[in-house]
Amino acid sequence: MDVAIIGAAGACGRQLAAQVLQRGTVPPGGRLQLVGHRGGPSETELWGLRSDLEDAFGDWAPDVELVLDPDAVDADLVVVLAGQTVSLDPNAPVDRAELARVNAALFHTYAVALARRPDPPIVVVQSNPVELGVRIFAEHLPRERVIGAGAWSDTLRFRRELAEDLGLPRRDVAAVTLGEHGDRLVPVWSAVRARGVPADAVDRAIAAARGDRQLVDLPDEIATARTEVVDLIRSGAVAEAWARVGSLPADLRVAVKPFFTNFTSGRTTEAVTAHAVADLLEAFVDGVWRAFPAQVWVRGDWNDLHAAIAIPVIVGQNGWTPVVDLALHDDELDALQRADAVLAARQEELVATLE
Question: How far is CA 49 from CA 14, 59, 296, in A?
Fold first, then answer.
């Protein structure tokens, strides 16, 4: 099994390369391709990264190759971690529309190159906007072989925040987020379960977290809380910003805490970003069907959603298929449909510019 990491020189790409080698996801007889941009800084950095990885994991590492041309990417599993990201400077404007336009061109370049291969790979997108990346790659490759890991990152965060509120380890909490990897994420409160905790106690904890809040208002709540936290960081009040994050309900912490991390650590949320991708890669390599929330181009296959958006799926060696037995509450389905409408419009507009 061969794996290629597009954007391997970036912070998340480096983390992922180390994690897949540490886990043994790529077997000794396989190949790990570190993909960068010819003539850019990543070309130089990838030489050093390969040297470091070979020294660290030489006892069982696969062949580690450098790839500097999209047409030379040749792997069974291709991870997309390249592209422009939000600035690490809290004083810099966050222009998501520009981020989407820039990264759309990069997605298109690699999607076209991969489509020329006789055997289409499975593509795992973790660059932002994840949904747009999934849509563009799925325009050129079989859509059941294109999946986004952003929803799994959010779900790991959601489970951790709920576990903290319940006083449990994360492994004892079952929960899922769907929708957008962004302001229009949809926490599925109706699916929250906690091992060893009576259902009525879990319901009380959920009621305490939600209060009178409605899912339809969550995008605005996220935007407001994010602004408050970033403004505190800009003023130098980092401890106060952390306290403000901690005071938020679990679903808001999921969406806002990554911005705190981004603007205080001097790095993006590289560990959990890579961890989520590594989990998906393991599922594809193991060949055992596993359930994940993930961004896929739905096209009406689940609850009449049409955009590239996060839904529950089953993944295996040949790609993904929708989960059919997750019953959403009316407010959760409504929030998901609202997110779908917004994402579908954005994606159609940007995809049209690439044709």
Answer: 8, 17, 31
pLDDT at 349 over 80: yes
Q: Are residues 67 and 106 in the same domain?
A: yes
Opening angle at CA 181, ends 112 and 73, nearest 5: 25
Contact 128, 290 (CB under 8 A): no
Q: What is the CATH number of the domain that holds 322?
A: 3.90.110.10
CA 355/CA 352 separation, integer angstroms:
5
Is the torsion defined by CA of 303, 283, 151, 214 positive or negative?
positive
Q: How far is 252 from 130, CA to CA, in rounded Å?
A: 20
Q: Which residues contact 232 (CB under 8 A, 6 or more apart)?
A: 238, 240, 241, 244
HSE at residue 308, side-chain half, CA atoms within 13 A, is 29
> Does residue 243 contact residue 255 with C-beta atoms inside 8 Å?
no
Beta strands in 107-251, from DSSP E residues, in sequence order:
122-125, 146-148, 173-174, 177-179, 185-187, 193-194
Taking a C-beta distance cutoff of 8 angstroms, is the pair 104, 96 a contact?
no
> Which positions ≥6 away from 160 have C-beta within 8 Å?
170
User: How many domains does the chain fold into?
Assistant: 2
Provide the pLDDT confidence category of residue 91 given band limits of 50, 70 and 90: low
| Residue ranges making up the domain that contains 173 | 151-355
Same domain, 123 and 227: no
Average model confidence (pLDDT) across the chain: 93
Q: What is the pLDDT of residue 287?
A: 81
Q: What is the mean pLDDT of residues 119-130?
A: 95
Is residue 288 within 8 A of residue 316, CB to CB? The reply is yes
Q: Which helix (H) or strand (E) holds 332?
A: helix 330-354
Same domain, 217 and 306: yes
* Structure tokens that stand for 44 in this block: 């130089």
Mean pLDDT of 321-341: 93
Tell me if the pTM is above 0.85: yes
Helix (H) or strand (E) holding 320: strand 319-322
Residues whose CB is less than 8 angstroms from the CB of residue 353 and which lie 6 or more positions away in sequence, other chains included: 101, 104
